[in-house]
Design goal:
Layout lengths: L12 H4 L2 H5 L12 H8 L37 H7 L13 H19 L8 H26 L12 E4 L13 E3 H13 L17 H14 L3 H12 L31 E3 L2 E2 L5 E2 L2 H5 L11 E3 H5 L6 E3 L1 H4 L3 E2 L2 E2 H14 L3 H12 L16 H15 L6 H11 L6 E5 L2 E5 L12 H6 L10
Antiparallel strand pairs: 1-2, 3-9, 4-8, 5-7, 6-7, 10-11
Helix pairs in contact: 3-6, 5-6, 6-7, 7-8, 8-9, 8-13, 9-13, 13-14, 13-15, 14-15
Length: 461
């Protein structure tokens, strides 16, 4: 962006500076937004500039906490300490003075969104329709940030005890003084997220030319994910239906060419991918070694085998196994909302609502676009239990490296009878994350608790 709004110098100061430092910051030599186009430029900032994170950034540090990725001993010295700490679920992921990039990104986005929400109606030009759309976009960005923060730094939402679970600090304005950073409950946070999304739908266009901008299709997709996470499967299915009624494109992977690296698919750039309903992107974007269990799910005639390449190809180390290569090929891992996710959500909801055939039908709609031409065999099942198992398998393959697996495991352990423990091995040491352990909540960086003690640390076991 050529015009950098004044919020750049204070976007993330709320949690990256001590109180006295950020309270003394004043905007200097920056453009103060006054016109509708100023706020449009702000919401269209898609890349990080200075300490401003942009609005397409998402989280990614939890990928190594799941069972989809591993750290081979031979690569121990090639990965950062944060990845190793995440992989072994340490009580502290970051050193005492280090920032948490995910926390910074989301609170930076929240601050920017709050500026738009507070000020857009006082813009000196523009129509009411334009102002309402910008306010709606800002609300969706804020909702996404809070939803992500809650699922990172809290245990999973439990409909039986939502008022007993702490989430994260809630900021609904841009004040820099007199601020209480105590955490709110998951119930309060989810109430805000649902209100932000549902109140915005009417003011959004059905679809957008630029997929980083929220739309009605995006809002419905977001609702589908929210309701899925809180176990309201009928509302989730209805929202997925609404989103797919507006955007339903699926790529046929048989038509996706090879990257310059043979056997690796060159998927469209994320800004141009017709499957992406609302763009968010995750880091790190490449070089994630795939676990043997995840790799084994991909059948030989499944085109999604082209998402991976051998570890030796990328690291030059002669060890077995693959890395997720598709993210490297297009310099990003999508972490937002997509049509494949909507088909999978609708399938899961139908399975959980005892409609096995509808669930299988959606899986087949997706899978026919993923298998080698002439090799696709439709799935069949009349059992909701079997259909749900097939959905979970398909979801794990299709959405790999897109920030879903760790959160999926948290909700499976909350809502399903069978529980899943995670076991990771690193340098001959074994680490276990037990199902429903308090350690599924990512620890909050020490730096923020030292500066704002009322936040408090997550309980650890």
């Amino acid at each position: 962006m050529k015009n950098i709004i004044y919020l750049i110098l204070c976007m993330t100061v709320l949690f990256s500076c001590d109180r006295e430092e950020y309270l003394n910051i004043l905007p200097k030599s920056k453009i103060i937004p006054t016109q509708v186009n100023d706020y449009r430029l702000l919401l269209d900032q898609i890349e990080a500039i200075g300490i401003s994170p942009g609005f397409t950034g998402s989280h990614g540090n939890q990928e190594f906490m799941s069972d989809d990725f591993r750290i081979p001993d031979e690569l121990f010295n090639r990965l950062g300490q944060e990845e190793k700490n995440s992989f072994t679920w340490q009580d502290n992921i970051y050193q005492v003075n280090d920032e948490d990039g995910d926390w910074q990104t989301f609170y930076g986005q929240i601050y920017a969104a709050n500026i738009v929400i507070e000020e857009i109606m006082d813009a000196t030009d523009g129509t009411m329709e334009e102002k309402l759309q910008l306010e709606a976009e800002a609300k969706l960005h804020r909702a996404y940030a809070y939803f992500s923060l809650a699922n990172l730094y809290a245990v999973h939402y439990d409909a039986n005890t939502p008022n007993a679970i702490l989430a994260v600090p809630l900021r609904l304005d841009t004040r820099l003084s007199g601020v209480d950073f105590s955490r709110v409950t998951l119930k309060d946070l989810y109430d805000l997220v649902l209100e932000d999304v549902t109140s915005s739908i009417e003011s959004l266009p059905e679809t957008t030319t630029y997929n980083h901008r929220p739309s009605k299709a995006a809002a419905h997709a977001f609702l589908a994910r929210i309701y899925l996470y809180i176990g309201d499967f009928e509302k989730s299915r209805n929202a997925a239906n609404s989103s797919l009624g507006l955007v339903s494109t699926l790529l046929d992977y048989n038509n996706v060419p090879d990257w310059f690296f043979p056997g690796v698919a060159e998927l469209p750039e994320i800004e141009e991918d017709p499957q992406i309903i609302w763009l968010k992107s995750a880091f790190p974007f490449a070089l994630l070694p795939i676990s043997e269990a995840a790799q084994a799910l991909v059948e030989p005639n499944d085109q999604r085998r082209r998402l991976f390449a051998s570890i030796r190809s990328f690291f030059g180390v002669n060890i077995p196994g693959n890395v997720y290569a598709a993210g490297y090929a297009r310099n990003a891992r999508p972490a937002g909302f997509s049509t494949p996710e909507m088909y999978l959500i609708r399938a899961e909801c139908n399975a959980r609502l005892e409609n096995a055939q509808a669930a299988i039908d959606d899986l087949n709609i997706l899978r026919i676009k993923r298998f080698d031409t002439g090799t696709f065999v439709p799935l069949t099942s009349t059992s909701p239990t079997e259909a749900l198992a097939l959905v979970k398998k398909e979801r794990r393959i299709e959405l790999i490296a897109q920030n879903h697996r760790f959160f999926d495991l948290k909700r499976y352990n909350t809502y399903d009878a069978s529980k899943i423990d995670l076991v990771h091995t690193l340098l001959d040491q074994t680490f276990t994350l037990q199902a429903n352990s308090k350690n599924w909540a990512v620890p909050i960086a020490q730096k923020y608790i030292i500066e704002t003690p009322e936040i408090g640390q997550n309980d650890r076991e």
